[in-house]
């Protein structure tokens, strides 16, 4: 029996940080390794233009760097299809056809549309492309007849909208598309070093590629339990971002020890952070070795992307043949 297909994508807006790693990438790798799915992962470079239209010069480099990060954390082109959206022009055609049948009201009430407009208030996002962002996303997903879309909770409204659009297409023309489901990733609550959401725009991220002094420095400046002023004050690990990181990087016994010690002021935050920095460095060491390898073998990256583009295009062409017949165009 054919494996169920899943598909997910990321916008190439810069280097990936630990939020991406724990919120999405590790899950992508697990799904790949489970052997239960035919995995498609792609770089949503057209989607990046919706917010970066006035400075597009970084998108190509970000695409390459993102694929380097993907491969370095364990995505494997032998097992997953890795491709770039803009290389498969069929996405644009399907986007156009879907835009014809998508009611404006569905887009205007999209919560991420409203949120992102406020979050990125410095950019003018009153564009047609930005409003249509989820329609392009729907095209990405249904093009491959994906059964599931691994995403974080913030993307669920987009998958819901994709379901609506797919249903509408099936109803108006022909039952071509399976209705995709969001495969929710439980995202651990990891904040940036300043205690806000980890985000490139806040300049508070720990990048997957950070190492040595940079990594140490970032971890040493992380916000902790704000109530804990002095080393003699007992702390509360539950509200400490450093502790949340320990939960992911340290041995369970160690995590318990830190929890107990913190609560009775038996450990200082400086030492706690030093231990964390040590663990994160150890954990990322092999990732960094692979990053170094790929940075010096960009031709290999390009080949991997081209191969993925070929595989994706093959499926996209088949789908579009069916779609054109259904639409009678
Ligand atoms: N909107 C997604 C994000 O910002 C990226 C994306 C584009 C995507 N197309 C997709 C994710 C299709 C899943 C499936 O993270
Ligand atoms: Fe956080 Fe560790 Fe300080 Fe406790 S000791 S507040 S867990 S950094």
Write up this protein:
The structure is a single chain. By secondary structure, the protein is mostly helical. The protein folds into 2 domains: 4-190 and 298-327, Rossmann fold, CATH 3.40.50.620; 210-292, Tyrosyl-Transfer RNA Synthetase (Orthogonal Bundle). 56% of the residues lie in helices and 8% in strands. The chain has a 3-stranded parallel sheet. The chain has a two-stranded parallel sheet with strand order 4-5. Helix 4 (90-101) crosses helix 8. The longest helix is centred in the C-terminal third of the chain and has 30 residues, at 298-327. It is globular and about 75 Å long. The two termini are 33 Å apart. The model has no long low-confidence stretch (mean pLDDT 95). The structure holds tryptophan (TRP) and iron/sulfur cluster (SF4). Iron/sulfur cluster (SF4) binds next to helix 11, helix 12 and helix 13.
């Amino acid at each position: 029996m054919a494996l169920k297909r899943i598909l997910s994508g990321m916008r190439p807006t810069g280097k990936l940080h630990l939020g991406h790693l724990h919120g999405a990438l590790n899950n992508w790798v697990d799904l790949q390794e489970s052997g239960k799915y035919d995995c498609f992962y792609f770089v949503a470079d057209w989607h990046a233009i919706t917010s970066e239209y006035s400075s597009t010069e970084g998108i190509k480099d970000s695409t390459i760097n993102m694929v380097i990060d993907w491969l370095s954390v364990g995505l494997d082109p032998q097992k997953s299809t890795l491709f770039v959206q803009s290389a498969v022009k069929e996405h644009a055609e399907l986007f156009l056809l879907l835009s014809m049948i998508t009611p404006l009201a569905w887009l205007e009430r999209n919560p991420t549309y409203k949120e992102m407009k406020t979050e990125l208030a410095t950019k003018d996002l009153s564009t047609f492309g930005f409003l249509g962002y989820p329609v392009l996303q729907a095209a990405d997903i249904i093009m491959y007849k994906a059964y599931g879309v691994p995403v974080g909770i913030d993307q669920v409204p987009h998958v819901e909208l994709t379901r609506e659009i797919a249903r509408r297409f099936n109803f108006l023309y022909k039952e071509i598309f399976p209705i995709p489901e969001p495969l929710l990733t439980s995202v651990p609550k990891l904040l940036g070093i300043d205690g806000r959401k980890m985000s490139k725009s806040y300049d508070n991220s720990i990048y997957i590629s950070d190492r040595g002094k940079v990594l140490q420095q970032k971890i040493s400046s992380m916000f902790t339990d704000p109530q804990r002023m002095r080393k003699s004050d007992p702390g509360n690990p539950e509200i400490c971002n450093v502790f949340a990181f320990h939960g992911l990087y340290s041995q369970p016994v160690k995590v318990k020890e830190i929890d107990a010690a913190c609560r009775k002021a038996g450990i200082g935050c400086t030492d706690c952070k030093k231990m964390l920095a040590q663990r994160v460095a150890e954990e990322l060491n092999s990732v960094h070795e692979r990053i170094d390898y790929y940075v010096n073998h960009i031709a290999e990256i390009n080949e991997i992307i081209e191969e993925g583009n070929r595989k994706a295009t093959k499926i996209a062409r088949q789908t579009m043949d069916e779609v054109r017949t259904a639409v009678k165009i």
